[in-house]
């Protein structure tokens, strides 16, 4: 906006106001007196430009972005803690109950038992916020002594932990709400309600799916994967806990069914030409990381798994010079996804 207001331009304007009969050359008294002021004015214009960008939602950042869109009711999502299913066994390898509040560790993350699901089956919550709590499964080490406990393990991610919402994600939600207003129980309203539940990463709505006044909401978690039954139940209770009674967010008369997306397993095989200094296992690990990033972004966006896209991801992996014989689920071609399906990465086999 003020990119033309440079030091040179401002100083030139100032000197133009000085009578020509006076010495205005660089090093003169007039020049040396005006140059510092011109420099400060140029800096002021730089800061004005920055401040102007902080006013508008498309360029604002941080707290300024929060304040610029506060009028709309769209607020930044806070970081949340992961919740997982844990199983607990005694010396006879039989499920046993443990005290709620017991603490366990796995890797560098501690987890706390917050509720009982059934005999020997509990919900645990990470003691740290963010996605790091989503990544650990397997044997748990008890921090507190529990009598008769022989084995404990984390088995399933129930509600993914999330990091604090980024500026780009918040801005996109704001723009979506402006472009596709959620009102009066329209499709966008159901999507908005689903996304208001912590752990939900995406939703699709199917109006009249089972007759008049019926609505089906299909959700994925924030990892872009099928949602757990616990998360599905939370969304159901939030939107329509008692069918059609209007006791949740849905209007009276709307019978809402919330379900999880269906995972479509994609097995991948190919032969690769490795660059010097790279190992096959190292390349495979990098490829898997890139695949997971793509998978999360593809959930409820792509209608098929493109062989060309998978090939591009493979070719863009460090250490891969070329590839041949790329197969998806044992065949050449794309994999079609239904409206309720999301891709899951299955077995990945790379050869040389």
From TrEMBL:
Domain Baseplate J-like central positions: 182-259
InterPro entries: Baseplate_J-like_C, Baseplate_J_M, Phage_Baseplate_Assmbl_Protein
Domain Baseplate J-like C-terminal, chain residue ranges per copy: 266-350
A Pfam family of this chain: Baseplate_J_C
Family classification: Belongs to the Mu gp47/PBSX XkdT family.
Protein name: Baseplate J protein
Provenance organism: Paenibacillus odorifer
